[in-house]
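User: Can you predict the 3D structure of MIF4G domain-containing protein? Sequence below.
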Amino acid sequence: HLADGVQVVYSTSPLVVIMADLGKVDPASIKAASEAVAASRAALEALRAARDANTAPKRPSEGELRALDASIKKNTALAKKLRALSEDNTAALIDECGKTNQAKYVTEVVTAIAEATLKPSDVPAAVRLCSFLHQRYADFAEALGPALTRSFTTVGKPAGTAEEERAFSRRRRGTLRLAGEAAVAGVTTAPGAGGVQQLAAMLQELATIKWAKDKDGFAGALALAATLAKSPVREALLGLPPVPPSPAMLQ
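Assistant: Sure. Here are the predicted structure tokens for MIF4G domain-containing protein:
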């Protein structure tokens, strides 16, 4: 359509926005929009590639795993590092996981990942790590979904200090985003993993909060749910159209 002198064409799969400058658009705005589209496309393509690899993983043999360090000391130290998972240390963690045998410690590894506090920028890196581990251990995916759900849920959780509640809220945001993107990447949609069902359970928990009874909680639940609408989960699982350019980009 034509809006304020700008011809905008939307393509739904993959996310593509083509903007033609008809003399009323700042070139910097077009550049920003193009970069945003390129980033979204790259994220979707990375998830598709991960999904292909995760759907038919080629796992190492038992003999190959036995040749690696499987000591309690090494795996305990690794689990501690996984709790501090971030975009910056993911490459090093993947390298260390590749040199360690976690076959007997999958539960500890999954719990550590689920307890990490992830920023939105950390989630794609966390998906890469989860994909790597899923492609090594057949029981990783089946354990990941329930662990993320336990990390996310407030059921039975005692009230904490204001700072503790803020930290928990930050962790829930990253946990929900990871649950969604791990499903899109094919980690938790493996047979028996139940990733989509686990994600639905998280959203159902948010839906139980009523505006009339808890306005702050309701607003927080909406903010959490909105994190999925800003990620590749928007199109792949929720079936929503691509995010259009912001009004500022069309001025």
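Residues 82 and 113 are 6 Å apart (CA to CA). Residues 1-22 have pLDDT under 50 and may be disordered.
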